[in-house]
Amino acid sequence: SAVISQKPSRDICQRGTSLTIQCQVDSQVTMMFWYRQQPGQSLTLIATANQGSEATYESGFVIDKFPISRPNLTFSTLTVSNMSPEDSSIYLCSVGVTGHYGYTFGSGTRLTVV
Amino acid sequence: ILNVEQSPQSLHVQEGDSTNFTCSFPSSNFYALHWYRWETAKSPEALFVMTLNGDEKKKGRISATLNTKEGYSYLYIKGSQPEDSATYLCAPDQTGANNLFFGTGTRLTVIP
């Protein structure tokens, strides 16, 4: 299975600023996924990042707030823009070769907005 | 948005005890059911991907069953060990289009 390097692992940010999270995969994958887990909530899919096209966002998430880049088949970034304390969450990237083997996750970015 | 319920929300068991948790999901439009284990400060780890009604999968002391007609899956841990302490997440996949809806998880603590 793929190995994902995600960074930063944690950060404390001032409200109104932006943070970019990076995920590097050790193999080429077609789709990468970005998730968020707010305190006490379930893991929620933010968007699917495809190489060469715009990301597909789930209901409740917009590109202006969570711009995503996918410059090649091994790398993606998620930016959390104009942060507020409500953005304090764990953010995870994920890849899956097929639906029958489960998905591999990065180690997560624990974001605290103050 | 999919209504996925996991119970209990948390539990504490003694080392050596066996335990089980439940994942309930809508039985319509079923494609697969994923189980993950998420230890603190680590990545979620895939345990099982189940697709067939009546399926049972096993990985060491952990096993899972699936009932797609009534929309539930059970995860069993036999002889719990402290290293089993983690949050166990289930996520149904309705279409195979890589859109998983996760439950809030069952947080297991195994007391030595």
Pick out its properties.
heterodimer; A: 114 residues; mainly beta; 7-stranded mixed sheet; 4-stranded antiparallel sheet; 11 strands; B: 112 residues; 5-stranded antiparallel sheet; 5-stranded mixed sheet
Q: How does this model look, in words?
A:
The complex is a heterodimer of chains A (114) and B (112). With 114 residues, chain A is an all-beta fold. Helix content of chain A is 0%, strand content 49%. Chain A has strands spanning 4-7, 10-13, 19-25, 31-37, 44-50, 56-57, 68-72, 75-80, 89-95, 104-105, 109-113. In chain A, strands 2, 4, 5, 6, 9, 10 and 11 form a seven-stranded mixed sheet that branches. A four-stranded antiparallel sheet of chain A has the order 1-3-8-7, with no helix packed on it. In chain A, strand 7 (68-72) and strand 8 (75-80) form a beta hairpin. In chain A, 34% of the residues are buried. Classes of the chains: A mainly beta (114), B mainly beta (112). The interface between A and B is medium-sized, with 24 and 28 residues.
